[in-house]
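Subgroup meeting minutes
Present: P.N., E.W., G.H.
Scribe: E.W.

1. P.N. recapped why we're keeping a running log of single-chain structure predictions: easier to compare across weeks, and new members can see raw inputs and outputs side by side.
2. G.H. added today's entry (127 aa).
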Amino acid sequence: MKKWMSMVLGMVLILGLAACGGGNENGGDESSMNDGSTNNSSDKTSESSGEYDAEAARATYEANCLSCHGENLQGKVGPGLTAVGSSYSKDEILNIIQNGKGQMPGNILRGDTEKEENVAKWLADMK
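Output recorded in log:
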């Protein structure tokens, strides 16, 4: 039963994050997110979704989303997020993070509004 609940929780997390997408903080091509490389820049990035801390967003993703959406946002149990910003706006992604969607549960970041906003902006720039 515990294993089943873990799977359900993981699926809900994945689906919710699928709507979030990953951001390319370099402004370069998207392949840098897909080839396993990461940008460790702590600079804030300003793009269409607004300013965000890409390094903090990536750390939040790794701690809360990676198990379902994959190390490089490629998808695992949950959908891939490499281009989620092409399908969902920052506000839609934030809504999914907060309220869940499909099998992804809501409240994944336990009400930490700052982290929710930062990750939503980061994922919205994944196009």
